[in-house]
Give the backbone structure.
Amino acid sequence: MPKGFFNVPKAINEPVKSYAPGTPEREKVLVAYKELWNSSIEVPLYIGNQEIKTGNTRTMSAPHHHKHVVGTYHLAEKQHIELAITSALDARTAWANLAWEHRAAIFLKAAELIAGPYRAKINAATMIAQSKTIHQAEIDAACELIDFLRFNVEFMTQIYKDQPTSDSQFWNKVEYRPLEGFVYAVTPFNFTAIAANLPASAAMMGNTVVWKPSDSQVFSAKVIIDIFKEAGLPNGVINVVFGDPVMITDTVLANPDFAGIHYTGSTFVFKEIWSKIGSNIHYYKTYPRIVGETGGKDFIIAHPSANPKQVAANAIRGAFEFQGQKCSAASRAYFPKSLWPAIKAEFDKEIPTIKMGSPEDMSNFFTAVIHEGSFDKLAYYIEQAKHDADAEIIYGGGYDKSVGYFVEPTIILTTNPKYKTMETELFGPVLTVYIYEDKDWKNTLQLIDETSEYALTGAVFSEDRYAIEEAAKALENSAGNFYINDKPTGAVVGNQPFGGARASGTNDKAGSAQNLLRWVSPRTIKETFVTPVDYRYPFLK
Ligand code: NAD
């Protein structure tokens, strides 16, 4: 039992390193990249105290060089999923009863391991597995992950400190118990930080977890597991399985001890999972917590008062960084007719300067998309746009998968504000632009709100305060993260809690106390010091 009210270290955001030529961090990450590139890593399942090699394997390769194999990972069968659930449940009592400061210490140690000895490795693994430039890897796999771990420790203590009032006759307490059962974490390919945070946040609050990473992120997931182990995470607290997502999910959701899901990924998959949970609801011991951050069709709107250079620069960053594969990436833009020539002049100047290629060459701003499925989907929409009368490709439009899954940064200009690429999430480097008449500013705000099922991020650019206020009000329900004169990407833990509504998710704001609250089930305890011995109240006399 704790013998003190312990303070945790004040969480501060991890500074982003520059990786400019000549810096030591650049040298280190390139060495780590070469080492991992030339290695052949084998990733087993991590269940309880076992590392299981099932013999049924798949290869891992880099999206920017898909023929180059960097290792293999083992696929689970149904019995391994059942074993992972049993291991999580077996580990639960000891973990849930461990004093919070010991849980905190493990995750704070993990943050320091990433900040120091593992920084180059986790960044290099992310550059290879997800084809991120060093800057994109650094802000994700190093900084955001460190921030999640440090800030969540602080948020955890804020939650524990949130206690009801008491008086001299009775003492009220709230205990923040972990959920009764186990938590299932299902993670996407696009952020190493999200992959680590979804299982870690639930585990930090005392839960044990079955974690299923994306097939396209196993290579960097392995580094996360190594770090958690080195930080002292006990066996069975986070059990890691790979394989057929439907089989794994169906097995997990059929278990009566399933207590919650922490999901990030596409909307369709989340809705399928939700409906399966609904069908199984009579079998569960408790109502499962359902937390999901899903798709987006994120917008930029420029008011006629906006600065066109700012609009163009932020549209380029917002739409094309990490090849548009951020859930928050700008994928539809609304520009006023009066400003379009100036914005276009900036695009004409800047877009041809974007260099595409391997992230190992650090002069590249842009690399490959994640896999062949994504490449083919993007090529399909680009081809459609080439043929549709209401669309025109004004930049990019080229693609080539002979070496890596490369799709050029592409801008489609449409005359139809409901054109399919204004509504559908493509999850790639394609921005669709609609030009509105200046006098239609108000209607365009309404149009944005009514186009697409999502409500994740959005940005308004304007120098006119009245217009900014008008946009913020009109778009209140159109984005869970709303930006003024900034790109709609790049949320920082502790600064901009992240999440969207409508079809974009349950808006439980990753990297905030609100999210951690979903992983506890409070118990209220009232203790009366002098207990009455007569049932009669004074008014009865
Ligand atoms: P995805 O939906 O393909 O996969 C996400 C996870 O679900 C993976 O682990 C995958 O294996 C699993 N999965 C796939 N099919 C499944 C099924 N039928 N049943 C159960 N699990 C299944 O998504 P992705 O391509 O990895 O990631 C991109 C998507 O994630 C985009 O839609 C993006 O907007 C979204 N995303 C959202 C946020 C957010 O915070 N809102 C953040 C990152 C990514």
Residues 44-59+74-111+149-294+505-525 form a domain with the Aldehyde Dehydrogenase; Chain A, domain 1 fold (CATH 3.40.605.10). The mean pLDDT is 98. DSSP finds 16 helices and 23 strands in the chain.
